[in-house]
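This part of the workshop introduces the protein records we will be handling. To make this concrete, we reproduce a full record directly below:
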Amino acid sequence: MTHALPDTDDPRSAQRRGPASAKSEQRIRDLLRVGREVFAEKGYERATTTEIAQRLGISEATVFTYFRGKRELCVRVISDWYDEIIATMESGLPREQPIRAQLHYLIQTHLRLFLVQGTGLCALVLSEGRSKGQELGESFLPLQRRYTAPLMDLLARGQASGELRRDVPLRLLRSMVLGPMEHILWEAVAQDKATDIDAVSTDLVALLWSAMQAPDAELAALRRMRNELADALARTGAVT
């Protein structure tokens, strides 16, 4: 017997049953795993809950026990994928390094996760999730805000530290970073083109940094290096 879902837009609240049993939790994991495969292979329009059920050897009705339909299942798949990307970016971010090095890490990791590990889902998000009027478009908006949060935090810290210019709004700085990356992803997906992620990341950061860095950032960096060197020499003299 099925139970009604709570009236909520949270994609992680797709589960229909109350306290989930171990079997129910495993079923949800299986649906998300196979759903990811099917959506990545076929996109949203051509994917069906029938095929997802067939690959798992279950009835389509079982899919609807846990998800209202294809849209809800797809949003949950993308939400979980974004959570994985965010966790990877945040766990490896070299916060002790200058903002430029952290920006390079975020861009390089972003491209690697999309183009090496998630090309099919990348195509789905770019083609259907971003288009106005598409069935998934509005559902992806809160996911996009959550997904860009690490970059926004980095940019805010860069302005606070004086490494990034403060006369440009954070949202515009974010667009300056995401715009070129999206173009790179579109080109790679549309043309099925291999991308030298390391080289592209380095070139893109060099281009962005010339526009984003604070006018006196290089001078400030040199001063910090001078002070750090002076402190190191002073400590060495104290030891000797």
